[in-house]
Amino acid sequence: MDAFTLLDTPTVWTNWLAFWSFDDINLLWVLVGSILLGMSASVIGGFAFLRKRSLVGDALAHAALPGVMMAFLLFESRDPLVMFLGAVTSSFLGFFLIDWLPKNTKIKADAALAITLSFFFALGLMLLSYIQGLEVDNKSGLDKILFGQAAAMTQKDIKLLAYVALFVLSCVVLFFHKFRLIAFSATYARTIGIAVNRYELLLALLIVMSVVVGLQLVGVVLMAAVLLTPVAAARFWSNQLSHILIISALLGGLSAIISTQISYLAPAMPTGPWMVVSLSALFIISLLFAPEKGLLKRYTEHQKLRKKVAEENILRTLYKLLERKNFQHKTFNLADIQALRSMPLESLQSTLKQLCKKALITSSTEGFEMTTSGFELAEQLTRRHRLWENYLTEHAELTPQQVHQQAERIEHILTESQELQLQEELANSQSDPHGNLIPSSNSTIPGESK
Amino acid sequence: MKQPNSNTHTPSPLSVQHLSMRYHHKPVLTDVSFEIPEGKTIAIVGPNGAGKSTLLKGIMGLEPNIEGQASFFGESLDKKRQAIAYVPQREEIDWDFPINVLDVVLMGRHGQLKLWQRPSQLDIDIAEQALKDLKMWDFKNRQISQLSGGQQQRVFLARALAQQATLYLMDEPFAGVDVATEQAIIELFKELKLQGKTIVCVHHDLNTVGEYFDWIIFINARLIAAGPVEEVLTKENLNKTYGGRLSLLNDLTEQMYRTQLNKAHDTD
What we know:
The complex is a heterodimer.
Chain A: H1 2-8, H2 11-21, H3 25-50, H4 54-75, H5 80-104, H6 109-133, H7 155-174, H8 176-184, H9 186-191, H10 196-218, H11 223-234, H12 241-265, H13 271-289, H14 295-324, H15 334-340, H16 345-357, E1 361-364, E2 367-370, H17 372-395, H18 400-410, H19 416-425
Antiparallel strand pairs in A: 1-2
Helix pairs in contact in A: 3-4, 3-7, 3-10, 3-11, 3-12, 4-5, 4-6, 4-10, 4-11, 5-6, 5-10, 7-10, 10-11, 11-12, 11-13, 12-13, 14-16, 14-17, 17-18, 17-19
Chain B: H1 3-9, E1 14-23, E2 26-36, E3 41-45, H2 52-59, E4 66-71, H3 77-80, E5 84-87, H4 101-106, H5 121-133, H6 149-162, E6 167-171, H7 179-194, E7 198-202, H8 206-212, E8 215-219, E9 223-228, H9 229-232, H10 235-242, H11 247-258, H12 261-264
Parallel strand pairs in B: 3-7, 3-8, 5-6, 6-7
Antiparallel strand pairs in B: 1-2, 1-4, 8-9
């Protein structure tokens, strides 16, 4: 509760100003360190994500816990390098177990992952509670690696973190092509003589290193989210791997800034959950608003398509009505249209209004009449509809009843080149299976001079 | 026309000796041996589950549990890797992977590149030519997820071409492709044959096998026959190939693996 009372007071503002004035040089270090970590973890996590090994990072983070505790017990020191080596060792042990079990037993990969993760985590928790019962110096703060605490990091911690993060980032830049090749198809990479195993080991090492240095900042429990959420969010923004990785690095860095700040303003709050929450918020924003693949875009596209289909259907109906009157009588009212096309009155009226706006039809007191451009569009749709019906009858041997349903949909998506191809492949492109004439593409309106 | 002569001098592009493969204890292939001629198109034919793809993978050393060996131009795989291009089955690929056509084809150049090297202009030129040969250059910036099945297959073939190999091993390149792609593949075969290159394909269409290929290897868990089309494309071989597995051979081989008899018995 301490944390929240602190946030209530006006001191937040002054604290925030103090944060960004970097009076405390240590703070600048923490900030730079966490940005670097956010970036390197999201980039290396990107490869785990692409190789569909997303959960490996989670297991490796949990597997690091007993290593940290053992290192503390053995060396009675909180030196960052000692902690780091302890964590890397046990994390790698976990990695080999995860790798070995499915290859040599009937245990599948997901089960191996779950077993390893929980075993190492439990072991780590046991050691942690054992240490907390001991009468030793320095033990306070060890439990911080469960959920991370940026403010508790020392300069030494941050130096190590920065070195590791820069090492990871430069490895990815250096081996980008090979990593991508292996992520895309390890089998193929093997056939052209790439030492896939060596690169996989390097990837694993980089993941382990990023995870381990991230523990103090993010914590064991939530580290996986920092590896995976940025790339999952970035996937919505681009189709090019280099861009995806850059975007996920930016997202990772951004969430690091947000969470470090909060951890400073409210010292009782762990950094990890804040980092993950801000990353998830960025993920949700991407999911909803990404320009091409976002849900909003997909929804509006779908609505657009619905509108287009409704408009085209009405034009088709008007064409059919026109055909029935032998192209003599050209104005039809709502009842005429509804007799041929079942559609709720409300959407029929709004669609007609749209068509008027686009100058595809005109409305008068007697009803609705197609304009020249409306007629041309209607003719084109009808032609495509009937050509498709013919194609299905001739080549797929469907009955006239079946083909109409299919053509009702296909008419909206056929392109001009596909239409030409249809005409070439059809023996009969004069009339459709129901006996209706197929309007030719360069005809004038029968009985009409434009 | 000097084919029969040259064969006796240069070692076969691919010679398989006593190749046996299993999946856990289940035998997939038992004691397959053959040697193929240079500069021909060769089809591996057999029913579903006969071990056709497994044979190719075994030849490329991609599967565990292999006995016997394959040699390329008389040498081991590692010594001749640059001369061999493998085209996997289309289904084995994650087509949602964020990558465009040109980058996939450039992967064919990575066997020749050092650890950290990026493709050079020369590599890009080679990839460009490969894409043009398969009429896919216009698609060079397209995401692979946005390609049709036939186009995907052509990208794979372009990648193999970019390797500039002399022996091509392809897993079902004709499976599920459109007419245009089928034509493009046939043209490619002709072109490669003119350059004296050898093509080995897993093929499933018996109607076209005689037309598209010079040589056939019939397999169904074992080698049935291997030879020129006019010699081996016979009713008898087809019956043997498609007439079901030899269950006794199958069962006893499985039992042998299960008991690890192959390790307990003295090697000869």
